[in-house]
Amino acid sequence: xxxxxxxxxxxxxxxxxxxxxxxxxxxxxxxxxxxxxxxxxxxxxxxxxxxxxxxxxxxxxxxxxxxxxxxxxxxxxxxxxxxxxxxxxxxxxxxxxxxx
Length: 100
Known about the structure:
Layout lengths: L7 E7 L2 E7 L1 H8 L6 H4 L6 E3 L4 E2 L2 H8 L4 H11 L1 E2 L3 H11 L1
Antiparallel strand pairs: 1-2, 1-5, 3-4
C-alpha cells in the first residue's frame, strides 16, 4: 500500500453520487493506460469515500448498489478507468515531454 502522504484522489461520479479512493499516482496512471498493476500496491486505504479530503466515507449500501460489491480490489479499477485521476505536476510534465 502507498503512504497516505503520497496518495492522490481518484474520483468517479455515477447517478449524482460521488465515489473517491486514495491511490498511488504512478500505479494509477499505469492502470489508466491499460497496464496490469497490483491493486494492493495501488490503493492507500480500503475505504471508498464520498469526500476523501474531509474523510467522509461513502455508505456501504450505496457502494454495493453502484458497483455490485464492497471489495476495493474490484471497485478501484472501475473508479480509475472510468473516473478521473488527479495527476501530479511531475506526471503532467512527463506527458508533455512524451507528446513533443
